[in-house]
């Protein structure tokens, strides 16, 4: 039997590092997961273990090349953002991959903002809320100001997806999906690097920008597979939807953060929107994507725990709790105040189901406000919800009720970020057309319930 042509995608998250093999129909035919113990930087702050990641990359490739049932035609990468690897002239990392959660030095960012027009105008131009090390461009600025000798030794600062590509190709490049993710590097008004990047000399440390479908040859002699440049994981996860749907839609990607993405909204970010936790991304074609964020997944975890403890039940029951329309009618008639659920007294609810329905009602109300921020004058035809909340019947029914004139779908697919990284290289390795069933959809109708 002939070997199955596949693309290998390394999907690197903060916790789990995964390898997937997709066949030409974009079915996962092999996967492997690794987790590493974090190391620490020079200040003792936890950070990514780059050496473990590098060794795992090569070990995983060795394993799949041994498997005769597959023939690797291409390799690509998706990884989390705010993740600069500082490469020296010898091709080796010159310092740790600093954790974006590490506190930023007091006053250093203010110095930069003051020099280039003030915090608010700077943040609007770069579509980057002031987030310290989460603005990865500020990581380079910190090294320039506080560690000039180390800074001089840096040849290029590569975002993590491009570093992984470099390990296999020896090629240095930058990618717009990583640059355009709250890095404070990109001027969304001028569609180029921001003035400060040029004026501070940071531009010299940034590798040339390449197209997201650019491929290189492997360093290994005799290799005949194409290697991509890699993508930022959130932008990669949007690709399957952009490939499959052309009418305007909003994607609500749910997890710890619930991020509403509108790839059809190219309007400039305003200071008011920035204050409401909106930002802009760059998609795989270099177009701005309006986004809003809500910390709903974290809030869900906290409040479910509170409800379970109050009613002395197992929190797992909420995973499969069905939507109860009669209960929602009763709650609507009796609970008048619009407030956060954290401020509600649990003793006012008859049981855990009633409390949970009210909690999700409050959560969806906040979600509607957040998602509505990314709408434009052009009508949105559909809302897709993926991630954890897409499996929550109560959340999905209430969301459909809140948007009665928009089609609301729960969407599921196998590993969206990795799939997006595979799809962007489709023409470089796949002989078949892109299948139209890679996203599984479940429709939720507002007409089946009562209005909120």
UniProtKB/TrEMBL annotation:
<dbReference type="GO" id="GO:0005829">
    <property type="term" value="C:cytosol"/>
</dbReference>
<dbReference type="Pfam" id="PF00370">
    <property type="entry name" value="FGGY_N"/>
</dbReference>
<dbReference type="InterPro" id="IPR049382">
    <property type="entry name" value="FGGY_C_2"/>
</dbReference>
<dbReference type="GO" id="GO:0005997">
    <property type="term" value="P:xylulose metabolic process"/>
</dbReference>
<dbReference type="InterPro" id="IPR018484">
    <property type="entry name" value="FGGY_N"/>
</dbReference>
<keyword id="KW-0808">Transferase</keyword>
<protein>
    <submittedName>
        <fullName>Carbohydrate kinase</fullName>
    </submittedName>
</protein>
<dbReference type="GO" id="GO:0004856">
    <property type="term" value="F:D-xylulokinase activity"/>
</dbReference>
<keyword id="KW-0418">Kinase</keyword>
<dbReference type="InterPro" id="IPR043129">
    <property type="entry name" value="ATPase_NBD"/>
</dbReference>
<feature type="domain" description="Carbohydrate kinase FGGY N-terminal">
    <location>
        <begin position="7"/>
        <end position="227"/>
    </location>
</feature>
<comment type="similarity">
    <text>Belongs to the FGGY kinase family.</text>
</comment>
<feature type="domain" description="Carbohydrate kinase FGGY C-terminal">
    <location>
        <begin position="247"/>
        <end position="427"/>
    </location>
</feature>
<dbReference type="Pfam" id="PF21546">
    <property type="entry name" value="FGGY_C_2"/>
</dbReference>
């Amino acid at each position: 039997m002939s070997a199955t042509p596949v693309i290998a995608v390394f999907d690197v998250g903060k916790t789990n590092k995964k390898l997937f093999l997709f066949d030409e129909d974009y079915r996962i035919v092999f996967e492997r997961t690794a987790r590493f113990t974090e190391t620490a930087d020079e200040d003792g702050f936890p950070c990514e273990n780059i050496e473990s990641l590098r060794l795992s990359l090569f070990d995983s490739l060795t394993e799949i090349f041994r498997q005769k049932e597959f023939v690797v035609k291409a390799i690509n990468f998706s990884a989390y953002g705010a993740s600069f690897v500082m490469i020296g002239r010898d091709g080796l990392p010159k310092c740790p991959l600093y954790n974006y959660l590490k506190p930023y030095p007091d006053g250093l960012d203010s110095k930069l903002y003051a020099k280039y027009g003030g915090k608010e105008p700077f943040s609007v131009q770069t579509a980057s809320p002031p987030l310290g090390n989460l603005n990865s461009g500020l990581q380079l600025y910190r090294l320039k100001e506080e560690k000039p000798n180390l800074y001089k030794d840096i040849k290029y600062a590569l975002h993590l997806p491009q570093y992984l590509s470099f390990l296999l190709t020896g090629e240095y490049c930058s990618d717009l999906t990583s640059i355009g993710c709250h890095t404070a590097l990109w001027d969304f008004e001028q569609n180029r690097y921001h003035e400060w990047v040029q004026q501070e000399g940071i531009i010299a440390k940034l590798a040339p920008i390449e197209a997201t479908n650019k491929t290189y040859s492997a360093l290994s002699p005799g290799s005949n597979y194409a290697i991509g440049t890699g993508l930022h994981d959130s932008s990669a996860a949007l690709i399957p939807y952009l490939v499959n749907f052309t009418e305007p839609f909003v994607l609500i990607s749910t997890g710890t953060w619930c991020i509403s993405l509108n790839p059809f909204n190219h309007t400039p970010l305003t200071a008011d929107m920035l204050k409401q936790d909106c930002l802009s991304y760059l998609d795989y074609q270099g177009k701005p994507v309006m986004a809003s964020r809500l910390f709903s997944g974290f809030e869900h975890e906290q409040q479910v725990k509170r409800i379970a403890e109050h009613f002395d039940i197992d929190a797992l029951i909420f995973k499969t709790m069905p939507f109860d329309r009669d209960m929602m009618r009763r709650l609507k008639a009796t609970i008048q105040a619009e407030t956060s659920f954290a401020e509600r007294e649990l003793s006012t609810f008859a049981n855990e189901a009633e409390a949970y329905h009210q909690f999700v009602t409050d959560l969806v109300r906040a979600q509607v406000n957040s998602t509505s921020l990314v709408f434009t004058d052009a009508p949105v035809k559909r809302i897709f919800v993926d991630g954890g909340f897409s499996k929550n019947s109560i959340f999905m029914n209430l969301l459909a009720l809140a948007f009665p004139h928009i089609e609301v779908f729960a969407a599921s697919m196998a590993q969206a970020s990795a799939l997006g990284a595979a799809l962007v290289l489709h023409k470089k390795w796949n002989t078949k057309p892109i299948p139209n069933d890679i996203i599984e959809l479940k429709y939720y109708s507002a007409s089946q319930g009562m209005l909120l």
